[in-house]
Description:
The chain is α/β, with parallel strands linked by helices. The chain contains 17 helices and 16 strands. The strands form three sheets. The protein has a seven-stranded parallel β-sheet with strand order 3-2-1-4-5-6-7.
Amino acid sequence: MAIIYHIFALIVYLISLPILIILSLKNKYKNSIPARFFLLNNPPFKQKNPYFHSCSLGETKALKPIIDKFEKVNISVITETGFKEAKKYKNSEVRYLPFEIFIPFWLKNCSVLVVMEAELWLMLFLIAKKRCGKTILINARISDKSYPKYIKFKFFYRYLFSFVDIVFAQSEKDKERLEALGAKMVVVAGNIKSAVQYKVTKSYKKGDKKVLVAGSTHKGEEEIILNSWLGSDYQLVIVPRHPERFEEVDRLLSNFAKKHNLKYSKVGEKLKSDIIMVDKIGELINFYSIADLVILGGSFVDNVGGHNPLEIAYFKKKLITGPYIFNQKALFELVENYYIADRLNLKEFLNRELKNSFIKKRGDIEIILKELHNL
C-alpha cells in the first residue's frame, strides 16, 4: 500500500504545482509552501533528537510542558504561526514538515517521533517507524463530525496505525473510535492543552473602564461585535486572528469610530481609546490576563469552528462564544461557566451578570513523559 500511496501523492503533487506556486506568492504562505512543497530552506534535521510534530500555533503551544523536559528536540510544523511559536523554544531545531513524497528522503533518524492530535501522515509514521526508536501519537481525538469520514477509509487508517506504537487519547470515546480504526495500544491521558501554563509577556495598564477583549476574530465578526458593544460601558479591544487582515480591520474600526464619534487607536503602552486594535502577534494572552470579559471569535461565522477557550479559562475570565464551536467541543467540555450567544442576542449578554470561567479538568502529561523517558 505504501508504494501505491506514494505514487498517488506524487500525482496529486504534480497536478497541484500551479496552485502551489500561486499560493506561495501570498504573504500567508510565503514561507510555509516553499519549505513544505519545494524544500526551500528546509533541510533535514542535523541531530538525532526526540522529534515532535504539530500542525499550528495551538498544538505547538500545547507541547511546551513536554518539550521543556528535554535538553534538545526537533520540531516540525505545518503553518507559519506554528513555526514562529516553535522557534520560541530555545532547545529546539525547527522545520516545516515536507509533503509526503519528500519524507523518505528528508527524515533521516530520531530517537522517538511524537505527533500531536490529528496529524496522521502515513509516510511520516512509516519512515519514522523504520528509522526512529518509537512512534507515539498524543492528545489524539476524533470528533463527532469527523468520525464518519474516518470510518469510510478504515482500511487506510488500519494500515497507518500499524506504524504507531502507542496512542494517548483525550477521552474514552476517542479511545473507542481510535481502536475501531485500528489503533492497538491506546491510553486515555486527557487533553494536554489543559495542562499548559500561560505566561504574560507584557503588562498593560487598564484605564477607568472595564475591558472587553474580542479575541481571534474573523471576517464578518468585527461588525457583529461592534454593533453589540456600542452603548455599553466597556472599552473594546479587538484582536484579529490573522495578521494579513490587520489593514482591513484597521479601516473598518477607524470608519466605525468616526461614524459614532468614538476614539480609536492601535495598541500602545496606554489603553486610552474607546476601541483599540491589537496588530501585533503574541499579545492575545497579555490582553486575556487584563480582560473583564472575553468574546471568543471564530464562532459567530460558520466556517471556522471556534477557537481555544482554555486560554481564557486559565485566567478565570468571563467568557462568551458564538454558536459555531464544532471544532473545539472537546476543549469547551473542560471549561466551567461559558456562555453561548448569537449575533442577535450578544448585546443582551454584555448587560448580564456572568460567572467567571475556569478549567475544571486538566490533562495528564506525566503519563506521557513517563513513556518518553522509558525509551
